[in-house]
Amino acid sequence: MTAAETPDETAVAPGERPADAAVETIQREMTAFARRARALAGRMHPELSLVSYTLLGHLEERDGHRATDLAAHYALDKSTVSRQVSALERAGLIERRVDPDDHRVQLLHLTRAGRHILAQVTESRRTAVRQRLVDWPEEDLVRFAAYLERYNAWQGAPRGDDEA
């Protein structure tokens, strides 16, 4: 392996534990990852922010959801979700449908255009990730994927805690 393929050891300051230095590095690198993801989302589809992309993906996974459930899941204010939903409706990417189980409730669903744009952006994102990881050995990719799943599966934080 070349130096470019192997991450450097996390620099440990005198008196600092290696685990503390590693946590600082993880936090810094995850922040850089989030910034890059937001920037990439804007370049892939100018009208589709990272938040909008995330909401569309969530609606696709659930095959419809109430706006209040989106707000609860992402720990967002209902008015924030309402603005996002309104923008996605105006863009023709989502629509409201009556819940067949409770006619008082409206569920948000992707439109055909919403599914099409989501598929395009998703494929573009996959391509971008593949490009960054093209030189990684398969065992590193598998390990990295498992670590991300493990990190994101932690149940100790309140739902919607996407800050860390």
Textual characterization of the structure:
- This protein has helices at residues 18-44, 50-62, 67-73, 78-90, 112-133, 138-152, and strands spanning 94-99, 102-110.
- The chain is mainly alpha-helical and 164 residues long.
- A two-stranded antiparallel ribbon has the order 1-2.
- The protein has six helices and two strands; from the N terminus they run H-H-H-H-E-E-H-H.
- Helix 2 (50-62) packs across helix 5 and helix 3 crosses helix 4.
- A hairpin with a 2-residue loop joins strand 1 (94-99) and strand 2.
- The mean pLDDT is 84.
- 59% of the residues lie in helices and 9% in strands.
- The two termini are 31 Å apart.
Task: Please give the structural blueprint.
Layout: H1 18-44, H2 50-62, H3 67-73, H4 78-90, E1 94-99, E2 102-110, H5 112-133, H6 138-152
Antiparallel strand pairs: 1-2
Helix pairs in contact: 2-5, 3-4
Helix content: 55-70%
Number of helices: 6
Widest sheet: strand ordering: 1-2
Give the overall shape. elongated
What keywords describe this structure?
mainly alpha, two-stranded antiparallel sheet, 59% helix, elongated, 164 residues
Task: Provide a compact summary of the structure.
The protein has 164 residues and is mainly alpha-helical.
